Amino acid sequence: MLRPGFTGSPLDRADTLRNDPDAFAAALADWRARLLRLDGIDPVLDDQGRLSWGSLAEAPEASELLLLGLIDGRPHFAALDYGMPEGAARSPGIFRMLDLLPPEDASTYAGARSLIDWHLRHRFCAKCGSGDTTIHRAGWGRKCGNCDTEHFPRVDPVVIMLAEHEGKVLVGRQYRYPPGRYSALAGFVEPGESIEEAVARELYEEAGLKVRDVRYVVSQPWPFPSSLMMACVAQADDPTLTIDTTELEDAFWVDRAGVEASMAGEPGAPFLPPPPYAIAHTLFRWWLEETA
């Protein structure tokens, strides 16, 4: 199995430090501690196209430090500045930078970005509605000053899937995609739904397909702002499409040769594939290996 994007970070998440104020204080005082350099919420890259790290002294005034974890025993932090843009606001250059980042660096950055964004969105208590929340557990939680409720970072589950029919797979494009780009279909898992049920529902809602035999393939974090993408394949007996044009601009069936040509970037290929850091890219690669 190919490694999905945004996975493989060298960070030891150091959970024991999160519940030990003295150990966290020692990490803050460690002269070896490193701070992730950010431009707003985007990464700053060094001359080699890697994440750039500085000393804790570089943290903006009035920011709070979040412990990302340890690399070779050295504490690594990110700074939370409440003036930052939320992670859903994607800068024009972020995806160009992700094209440069090694997968392990992209994984570290993804965790930092999602954690920062969660803090920016959860400054007030969702239970009592009146209390300010403050950071605790070394940045991996917030606590209400009014009702003492603890809040923890969450991710949104998303299914992304290829429907198969007689040696072909379904690809679709959203209106916001670059010209020519197609991908696997995707959608959020709803409350009370299994992964398999979400796959079947989304394919029916977006493309009018009824599917069976849903199989899980692999998962990937997606930090825009904070999702867990769960890749699957499913079988369709009837290839007839009824496209929901509020969700998709277009969709069509592609045979193995077409997918292979697209992934290889060949002239005249039927579609432009998703970038390597996207799990849809991994899913297409997996399907080509499975059907070889």
From TrEMBL:
EC class (word): hydrolase
Similarity field: Belongs to the Nudix hydrolase family. NudC subfamily.
EC number: 3.6.1.22
Gene3D superfamilies hit by this protein: 3.90.79.20, Nucleoside Triphosphate Pyrophosphohydrolase
PANTHER family: NAD-CAPPED RNA HYDROLASE NUDT12, NUDIX HYDROLASE, NUDC SUBFAMILY
Species, as recorded: Sphingomonas changbaiensis NBRC 104936
Cross-referenced CDD domains: NUDIX_NADH_pyrophosphatase_Nudt13
Cofactor(s) listed in the protein's UniProt record: Zn(2+); Mg(2+)
Keywords in alphabetical order: Hydrolase, Magnesium, Metal-binding, NAD
InterPro entries found in the cross-reference section: NAD-cap_RNA_hydrolase_NudC, NudC-like_C, Nudix_hydrolase, NUDIX_hydrolase-like_dom_sf, NUDIX_hydrolase_CS, NUDIX_hydrolase_dom, Znr_NADH_PPase
GO cellular component: a single term: cytosol
Molecular-function GO term, any one: NADH pyrophosphatase activity
Protein name listed in UniProt: NAD(+) diphosphatase
Catalytic reaction(s) noted: a 5'-end NAD(+)-phospho-ribonucleoside in mRNA + H2O = a 5'-end phospho-adenosine-phospho-ribonucleoside in mRNA + beta-nicotinamide D-ribonucleotide + 2 H(+)
The Nudix hydrolase domain, residue ranges: 153-276
GO process annotations (BP): NAD+ catabolic process; NADP+ catabolic process
